[in-house]
Write a structure and sequence with these properties.
Radius of gyration: 26 Å
Distance between the termini: 64 Å
Helix content: 40-55%
Structural class: alpha/beta
Order of helices and strands: HHHHEHEHEHEEHEHEHEHEEHEEE
Shape: elongated
Number of helices: 12
Number of strands: 13
Largest sheet: 7 strands, mixed
């Protein structure tokens, strides 16, 4: 069936194509009576606006992209809910890209985004150094960008997240104050942004208490539960002495905790476990997990609002946003606490 065009409507009403086009765009210079006739004819003929053609004319798609490192994580789901809410309020569509913690897949998405007509992009990157140059190219293309959790070195774009150094410092400090001395520092797959802050916080606490930073307790791992299980197996198989684990996120921490208990290590009696980023999932495991819990939907909303401001005012330098988070002290790191304790710093 032939698609109805503006020309068809113009021919049907004996009007110029220009008049019909302007009326459909709600031009205030077109009489209301004429607009109503054109709208009625459009409905009668089954006209559907060609969004792609309109986007090409205006240079705006009213669509933004959200690139996340792992869609299945509670972090991504909650943040996306906040983003989608704001974008719907502003008549903007959202296209989501799930890199699945795979830098090669992330690279494909970046290249696709560079050739697409998106008005802006919100990014929670995979924390691999592999794609930094591509992200820089994306930035140099002029597309408005807002980072989630952590930015990347050499890219002057704002970030929305929590104060990772302060929160990380408090968590490691808490582990030491409960008597732990040989704390495993499970790092992410790169030292950019948030990962670097957490490593600095760990080292600062160890220095504060005059504790040695033991090389064999500094472990680089992935960011999912399988990575956590591998960390636990490697520690136990190599008979490494440790009494606590500080993990980059709750998925890694849960993987560590589950494997330790499977192999007869009691949590928290023998080993304490704490995670930097957490969500409701931290309350759903046993023992409940000590973690930093940010208002994830609010992070999504703030990131979306910041991106909209960047799109509307590209000439202005926009600052990042630091959002407060609670540190939830639970049984995994503090056996004498039967109930969660909420701490703000």
């Amino acid at each position: 069936m032939k698609r109805v065009t503006i020309k068809d409507i113009a021919h049907h009403l004996c009007l110029s194509v220009s008049t019909v086009s302007r009326a459909l765009a709600n031009d205030k210079n077109i009489r209301q009576e004429t607009k109503e006739k054109i709208f009625a004819a459009a409905r009668e003929l089954g006209y559907a606006r060609n969004v792609i053609a309109a986007n090409l004319r205006t240079g705006k798609s009213h669509t933004v992209g959200v690139m996340v490192d792992q869609m299945v994580s509670p972090y991504a789901c909650k943040v996306l809910k906040g983003i989608n809410g704001v974008m719907r309020e502003n008549g903007i569509y959202v296209v989501t890209y799930d890199a699945d913690n795979d830098p090669e897949l992330e690279r494909e998405y970046i290249n696709f985004v560079r050739s697409s007509l998106l008005d802006g992009l919100i990014i929670a990157h995979c924390n691999h150094v592999d794609n930094v140059d591509l992200f820089k190219a994306l930035h140099n293309d002029g597309i408005p960008i807002v980072f989630l959790r952590s930015s990347l070195d050499g890219i002057d774009e704002p970030m929305v997240g929590v104060n990772s150094y302060d929160k990380g410092f408090f968590l490691v400090d808490h582990l030491v104050c409960t008597g732990r001395k040989r704390i495993v520092n499970v790092k992410g797959p790169s030292m950019s942004g948030e990962m670097r802050d957490l490593d600095m916080a760990y080292r600062a606490v160890m220095s504060k208490f005059d504790l040695d930073i033991v090389p064999e307790l500094q472990i680089e791992a992935g960011v999912d539960m399988e990575a956590g299980r591998k960390v636990a197996d490697d520690l136990l198989d190599n008979e490494i002495d440790f009494d606590a684990v500080f993990a980059i996120n709750e998925l890694v921490a849960i993987g560590v905790m589950n494997r330790l208990m499977e192999r007869g290590v009691k949590v928290p009696d023998d080993v304490s476990v704490a995670a930097f980023t957490g969500s409701m999932l931290s309350e759903m495991v046993y023992p409940q997990l000590t973690s930093v819990e940010a208002p994830l939907e609010e992070i999504g909303r703030q990131a979306a609002e910041l991106l909209i401001r960047k799109i509307k005012q590209p000439e202005i330098k926009h600052e990042g946003i630091v959002i407060d988070a609670r540190i939830m002290l639970r049984e995994s790191s503090h056996p004498q606490h039967k109930y969660a304790e909420s701490v703000r710093i």
